[in-house]
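Here is one chain, start to finish.
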Amino acid sequence: MTEKKFNRFTVTAALPYANGPVHIGHLAGVYVPADIYVRYLRCLGRDVAFIGGSDEHGVAITLKARKEGKTPQQIVDRYHEIIKKSFTSFGISFDIYSRTSSPKHHEMASAYFDKLYKNGVFEEKESWNFYDEKADQFLADRYIKGTCPVCSFSEAYGDQCEHCGSTLSPNELIHPKSMLSGEEPIMKATKHWYFPLDKYENFLREYILQDHTEWKPNVSGQCKSWLDGGLRARPMTRDLGWGIKVPIKGATGKVLYVWFDAPIGYISATQEWAAAKGKNWEDYWKKEDTKLVHFIGKDNIVFHCIIFPSILQAEGSYILPDNVPANEFLNLEGNKISTSRNWAVWLHEYLEDFPDKQDVLRYVLTANAPETKDNDFTWKDFQTRNNSELVAIYGNFVNRAVVLTHKFFKGEVPERQNLQKIDKDTLEALSTFPDRIASALERFKFREALNHLMDLARLGNKYLAETEPWKLIKTDLERVSTILNVSLQMVTSLGLLSKPFLPNTYHKLSRILNFGDLKWQDAGRSDNLKKTTVLGPALLLFEKIEDDVIEAQIKKLMDTKDENQETAVQIYPIKEKINYDDFMKMDLRVGEILTAEPVPKSNKLLKFTVDTGLDQRTIVSGVAKYFSPQEMVGKKVTVLLNLAPRKIMGIISQGMLLFAENEDGSLKSVAPDTNATNGAGIS
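Its structure:
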């Protein structure tokens, strides 16, 4: 099959919610790989539009505004500027960083919805939703809190329990309450416009599972899980006061669903950019020789791979994403990054604490990128990679080659003559690196590409260590001249190939080596630096990071953990006293797990068949993070039998298994003795 030739590239990076700053998890999952890819394309001279912006609608914004006593517009204005400034300072090279509250976007999203509506795409349906009578308002899922039916956390949201991670719907909560008034909401009929996603299932199966077998397995796997679970029509409107008003009659008080509105933000931002640059925006969204690539985190896969392509297909004139190289999550010091608990390394704080070290963070996040599975960032690893790799390998090679040239040849590139076998072998190896790195980048394997780059620096160190020019300076000046010429040619290629990964380092090397306007295609050549080229002064590319600097960062995190533990005590205070009769109402029994399996579309839930001694029943529990199905089968467990049945992810759960939670959040089963009889009462 002939590989398709693309004449231009539209590259998008997920729109961050403008309700808080950007942290390293965002960078590792989306923005650093996207920027590397775009910079690589520009090195090749490709026509690229790199599109970004702030997502400024949805319930997350209104919740933040309510919490701070501000308007939603005040919130998004504040965080849009913080995020934009952080990206600019860090060097994320967007062609445009726009926002979904802009008039251009409102116009574009409204027109798009209206076109689909007039084409008869949407299905108008009435549904029953929670309604706060006191506030006189329908409640979005995030405006409802209650007790989680999976883990009994009392502050679970209507769409998700942030304690156990279970995906929920509001009617599954125990004792739901409105976050607006504190009152228990009622159910009330409301009308919405649904996109018939189920009608696009065959199209999506062919588009994703047949036409794009090259997609990353974590992406195609999640898509297949959704498709195999059966798609359903989804409402594209919401009962909210903040957002883009639904542009049709009978839709007063309703706005566009944020996941309809936000991806269209890529298009409206492209329109803004193209108008400013005198380009035709449609070339970047409607021409078949344009490659559309979305960089996102794994939590956005379904929206970018299933919902947005279906919406594009329904309109009919747009190209579809050619690839969606989503990354998994980056954890921090062994724990999930949490913005609500301030368990994060914020980009704007990093830039203050580590001035001029943007490339160090880019390097570490790429070397440790969560490309196919969750990965962990630790400050000790950050220090080790800086000191042992950037300083000791990359910086050491460059410094030795440049310093020796200044010392022995007054900074002039010496002549190469009478090549020996080691010189020829080294230059031949050098010529292979551009293609090796490019191949990895074309396949979105950024860790692999960075490893190849560092292998070039390792090759340079090895070459200098084996040739030892400092020992030959008094006896064989001609040989030293050749060795340093070869070394400087390698440094030049190292600099050129570093441009996508370490842009600041590239600019420093450009000043040191005076290699002018050399391009990516020049990397790997052995004649980039001409004889008599005068080198600039040696610059310190990287510097060692001391223990006290790292310890200060770890302490800041540990202080945050202590604060979180104090908060946890407030969230989980000793409950009100009960009498003996209340306790006796709980029917606690010994059970045995007969079967265990993951719940589709959930990475938190396991479905158990439990022998209670009285019957065999299904119980769903949010413990998949801590226990595999295999290790749970055959275990004795404590079961609360008389808990009212609840529907969780479409499964009726008939009871609760008891677990104890450790300080680190891990769980241990509250298990009876293995000799206890199934059905035996616990009191």
